[in-house]
Amino acid sequence: MPHAPRLAVPLLAVATALLVALAGPLILFNPWFVSLEQQRAGAAILLGATQSQVDAATLAILGDIWTGGDFGVSLTEGGAPALDAFERSHMVDVGGLVRVLGLVALAAVVVGLLAGRALRGRPRAIGTALVAGAATVGAAGVAAALVFAVAFDAAFLAFHQVFFREGTYLFGPDSTLIRFFPEQLWYEASLAAGALIVLSAVAVAFAGWRLLRGPGSAAV
Is residue 78 in some structural domain? Predict the structure, then answer.
């Protein structure tokens, strides 16, 4: 039987790794999860607002993240923007990063589908790529989760230093942005993201292992 295309296996492995790494964390940018974490962190109390006001404003903020809005959201109808210019500028940067990562994840889907099609009828090659991609990211996810769990402040700061311009992401505890999204929210969200990455990696690796062990797995 012809050998699998040389690039298809590594491309599928890379696409798998990117999807496992990005899909879980990006899914957390939804109003249900964020509202739950805001309630746990007492964001409404910190903001002196009702939970419904916080939910409505957060929904608008998340919408601006995904659509490139200006983050001029208010806690009250017709009120002044809740976030000041410095906070809005940072959220514009956050939105840009999230959208880039979303596009990377979408590109990984396309590449993965094309590579999978090229490897059709070769379950061992597909299984090898899935296991390799998932195992690599899964191991990294466990390590990152441990770092964030035991040294959250340093890890969170390092993340910002890597992805954002210096001087654009430091806010005081009385900042409206910090009250919208308290540290507890980010701590628990980082652990949830790590858990999703690891669980996704285990599921994909198991699927790859089944392909390696299943009928016809000798076909490469």
Answer: yes
User: Can you tell me the distance from the alpha carbon of 109 to that of 97, in angstroms, rounded to the nearest whole number?
Assistant: 19
- Give the amino acid at 51: Q
| 205, 135 contact by CB (below 8 A) | yes
Question: pLDDT value at position 46?
Answer: 95
Q: What are phi and psi of 20, to 5 degrees?
A: -65, -40
| Rounded alpha-carbon distances, angstroms, from residue 2 to 5, 126, 128, 130 | 9, 15, 17, 20
Q: How many domains does the chain fold into?
A: 1
> Residue 24: pLDDT band by 50, 70, 90 thresholds?
confident
The pLDDT tens digits of the residues spanning 135-155 come to 999 998 889 888 988 899 999
Nearby residues of 9 by Cβ (< 8 Å), 6 or more positions away:
115, 119, 125, 128, 129
Are 120 and 219 within 8 A, CB to CB?
no
User: Closest by alpha carbon to 19, among 216, 204, 177, 217?
Assistant: 204
Task: Return the structure tokens found at 173.
Answer: 């505890």
User: Hey, what are 98's tokens?
Assistant: 């999230």
Give percent of the chain above pLDDT 90.
79
Boundaries of domain holding 184: 15-212
Average pLDDT rounded to a whole number, residues 196-206: 94
